[in-house]
Amino acid sequence: MSDLIKIFISAVLIENVVLIRFLALCPFIGMSSDVKKSTGMSGAVLFVTVLATAVTWPLYVYVLAPLDLKFLQILTFILVIASLVQLVEFYLKKTAPALYSSMGVYLALITTNCAILAVTFDVIAKGYTFVESLVYAVGVATGFALSLLLLAGIREKLKIAPIPSFLRGTPIMFIAAALLSMAFGGFAGLIK
Amino acid sequence: MKKYLSYFTNGILRENPLLMLMIGLCSALAVTTSLANGIGMGIAMTFVLLMSEIIISAFRSLIPQSIRIPVFIIVIAAFTTIVDLVMKAFTPELSKAMGVFIPLIVVNCIIMGRVESFSYKRTITESIADALGMGLGYTWVLCSISFIRELLGAGTILGMEVLPESIRMGFFAQSPGGFFVFGLMIAVALAAKKALERKGGSR
Amino acid sequence: MKTMLKLSFVMGVYAAVACLALAGVYLLTAPRIAAAENRAVNETLSVIFPDADNFKDVSGSVTSPGGQIVFDGAYVAYTGSEVVGMVIRATGPTYKSSTLLVGVDTKRTLKPVQFMANTDTPGLGTKTAEPAFSGQFTGKAIDDAFSLGDDLDNISGATISSRGVAEIVKIASWSAGDYLAREHGSLAGTGDGPKIVELAPMEAQKALEDIFPGSEFVPIENLANTLERSIVFDRSWLVRSGDTVVGVAIEARGQTYKATTAIVGVTPDRILAGVRITETTDTKNYGWNMNDPSFYGLFTGMSADAPFLVRPTSADGDIDALSGATVSSLGFANIVKVASLEGARYLADNEGGKPAPASAQELVLNVIPDEQ
């Protein structure tokens, strides 16, 4: 149990997917302007990440590895993720059309979310068991949500802050992200 | 000929994928801790982009609209895998240093974006020009970031010690430094863009 | 429907072409990739056998010895076609964990030990990787005792790390020497090699028989604990051999680092017949080591009226704390003390056992510090 907790905390804080590992930056920059959009995106990412891990892990362990087909990992994993996103889109369109239309093109862009593919690769590289992989996936998605919401909050403040003109807009956002990243760097010694 | 040149230079500055379009960022910040990594990633990404654009453009009439995205994914994933295998075979240390970011080329928004918005609708030669331009634009930004981060963070250029230990700032070698350097580069690029626009009138 | 089929077919064709292309590239690059990986492994092995030009991976033929030590790789070193030695990569418990490359030559002598990983405390446990300690193993005979204080010096302040590393080297080198002897006719050792004792608590019945061999055990219902509330007597037995009462056994449970249950046996002479641990939730490598016979054996033969105070917490105590497990030792000593006093009292009151000495003082127990 403590191993699972360590994996989770490590994924959320110490090795935060956005602020420490530089993954999922496109949605990080693109969707954090709005707290509501951020929560919607985080939820979708959590869902796809966990589902993708649940499908790709057994695919690798029980099909690709034993059949010496490891070189098909990139191809199969990304196709699984793309299909899952397609299914999510389909499902959302039918059951929550308002949310679907508000997310717009960003829903399809979840496919290219580096973090999700990275998670599926990580759990194989780290040799996690199935349960450990799922916990890791939830942790990473939570870390993503956390950083997204933090930046969204900061961006609200940035809108009314006096910022030198050459830094206005994207540059100051990245510097804010740099400061957030430094803060998260402080978690480094959290777990021995 | 001028058209091709225009497509080529487009990616280098005007529509630079990292600084202007702001796509494909993940790899740009994660692997830029050393110049060697930056160059390696730039070349790898350019290769996948070039080959994917060529193939998609060549077969664009044979790719049905409704399934074009999965087909793009298959093509891009295939070339990414080829790059991965070749790097593991011929440059194992570089491959290990870049880790999961080589497979992540497949989800690099630049490639998916250019393939969908450009090469699916254009000829092969036009696609080649675009791919090389975008690739070069990506690579030069990557090399600039990694040059700064390696110099200030580790005190080396391509592994050769240049700065004494006392001047080195670990900040640049780590995650916050990446965000910081990139943020400043965007600021400079935006300022340059504004200056050019004012000088040459609106394009 | 027809379009769906057609689309699926087109997709399938693209996918198939891609897979075939990838298979082709894979077949072309696989040998080079394997060679590159081999080279990396060979580089580390060459540090141990600089004269060897070739290493054969025999990891599949060498099984881990069990317990907590795992062999994650084994390589036979060759110069030309001649076997010059063997390297085993072993991971085992030290303060935390260490991974070592242990190399032996064909004459049952150790080559320099290489550290691959060491997660012990920086500055203390990690000193085992430094030449002052690890250098002791170079040239050492596999069949040596590997005993700290005898043929090996330990690092002061890092006893657990030192012991752990010595154990890994001892077992890995023995396995390597044994493999070389069996497979390549190298010098063979005598005897069976080091035994890996997996420390574990004992089953209650086995504990009883271990302390009082050849006796019968009659459950007692009314052996009360009037001395210390925090220690609970779960069960107790009157121990008979034929018609004679040889003692009393009490299963007592109390706080150690977490909690421990032990069976304490006392004779009518107020002497401890023995102590065995039947259950403990203390930490592996620390308090768990109370299960080592060399620890609990210390209590055998002690007087029930002894102070049972633990050094170094009590400066003039009579029991040495288990290395790295002071809190466990404090709690355990208390459990043994209370159980043996009550057992002796029961024997004095009911079975004609020796009564407590007249100068019996107030009960003084080890103080277990609060959770930090």
What are the key terms here?
heterotrimer; A: 192 residues; mainly alpha; 9 helices; B: 203 residues; 2 strands; globular
Q: Your description of this structure?
A:
The complex is a heterotrimer of chains A (192), B (203) and C (372). Chain A has 192 residues and is mainly α. Chain A has one domain (10-20, 34-185). Chain A contains 9 helices and no strands. In chain A, helix 3 packs antiparallel against helix 8, helix 4 (73-95) crosses helix 5 (97-103) and helix 8 (130-159) packs across helix 9 (170-185). Chain B has a two-stranded antiparallel sheet with strand order 1-2. Chain B is 71% helix and 2% strand. Chain B is an all-alpha fold and 203 residues long. Chain C is α+β, with helices and mostly antiparallel strands. The longest helix of chain C is centred in the first third of the chain and has 47 residues, at 2-48. Chain C starts with a helix and ends in a 22-residue tail after the last helix. Chains in contact: A-B, A-C, B-C. The A-B interface holds A 19-26, 29, 71-75, 78-79, 82, 108-109, 111-114, 117-118, 121-122, 125, 166-167, 169-175, 177-179, 181-182, 184-185 and B 22-23, 25-27, 29-30, 69-70, 73-74, 77-78, 80-81, 84-85, 100, 103-104, 106-109, 112, 171, 174-180, 182-184, 186-187, 190-191.
How many helices of chain A? Answer: 9
Show unreliable segments of chain A. Answer: none
Dominant shape of chain C: elongated
Low-confidence stretches of chain C: none
For the termini of chain C, the CA-CA separation is 69 Å
Strand content of chain C: 15-25%
